[in-house]
Amino acid sequence: MPSKLRPATEPFSGGRVIILGVAASDCHVVANQLIEYELRASGFKVINLGACTSVDEFVNAFQSHPEADAMVIGSLNGHAYEDLKSLRDAKDNLLISCPIIVGGNLGVTRDQAAKTREKLLALGVDYVLEDAAELISLLNQLPRRNSFIANSE
Prior knowledge:
The chain has helices at 30-41, 55-64, 80-83, 87-92, 110-123, 135-141, 147-152; strands spanning 17-22, 45-48, 70-75, 100-104, 127-129. It is of the alpha/beta class. It has a five-stranded parallel β-sheet with strand order 2-1-3-4-5, sandwiched between helices.
């Protein structure tokens, strides 16, 4: 039994793997770099695919890193839904089986963003975040993927 228990609010990633990228038509990288920095500072191993990342590139990254605990996709130009339309097929065919988190500016107006959120969830996105500050907390709440299961996919 440990002599000191870690407070429930203290982040503990234990080297969990996160695949990070920016949607295909989006070249905004500043937020991507800041999120990578924050994830690494919190102990996550980050596979950063950078800007203008297609669904096929996300699939390839997951196939190369089936132990990934989550995939985080950012979009600031408001075209996430259009960029991620083929995500449903990738999830249905188990080419990506980790949770997918999308965040950023999902629409030009609040109404458009709300509609886009629902469309993204229908594509197989598991979580849509409005605030990047929620990301670390969400990742720490996700169950750790079993490496045996990940290696058998």
